[in-house]
Write the structure tokens for this entry.
Amino acid sequence: MLADLHMHSTASDGVLDPAELMRRAAHAGVDLVALTDHDCLDGQVQAEQTARSLGMRWVSGVELSAQWQGHTLHILGYSFDLGAQDFVSAIGIVQKGRWRRAEQIADKLAAKKMPGALEGALAVQRAAGAELHSPPARPHFADWMVSAGHVRDRAEAFRKWLGAGKLGDIKQHWPALQEAIGPLRAAGGVAVLAHPWQYGFTRARLRRLLKDFAAAGGRGIEVVNGQQPAEQVAYLGKLCNEFGFLASCGSDFHHPDSPWMALGKMSPFPADCTPIWVDPQFSR
């Protein structure tokens, strides 16, 4: 079975609408799919309807922002009740914070003689077919900067203005681990730590994070994120078993022009890890 449990649509910072994303996932041979937009549930109904019509097994999904010891983390939530009001409300609070961040990014760019950034980023979202319930993310600002002639390409936008430590890297106060995971679990969901390798932690610090994640109610870790190097997958698989986690995998798809994050294209799943989709709670 081919599972792809990490992908993004126009509901957050992807470039394909939820239905087209599901069609492409099916064409790529995906059997089990989850749409995991950033702090956003807007695309879930459309994704579910399309995925099921194409014969794929679908589970509800989201990528939640959280804070741990001053660092931003991402938590993948699966198989939750879309009608759980406390969970929906918790996501709504984070969405308001994302809107404030977008406004701050626009203000900072305007101070650098790049006015109209918020309107431009919203236009990028609209052109991609997004319903503008969700705030524009940094990739939307980057694409606007390219179209407005401020930078040559998206890579330059992040390198000079939007990347880590740059002007547009607004530090948002996300919920703590327990605050993010609690409402998800109350909604019947399963929490998985997204792309553990990408945080750049030392091995000792990563172990402390996994210990705290388990204590907060985390159930699994993403051992395969796109076409990740084999040695990274092997190490994460080892940690997965050591801490008693279930293992997940996903392409982390955002854009079809990123071949290393293509739908259904991932490094091999570790044979000695137990996949998250065998968990009765995940499969309910």
Observations:
- The two ends are 18 Å apart (CA to CA).
- The chain has a mean pLDDT of 93.
- The domain at 3-90+176-278 is CATH 3.20.20.140 (TIM Barrel).
- The first strand starts at residue 3 and ends at 4.
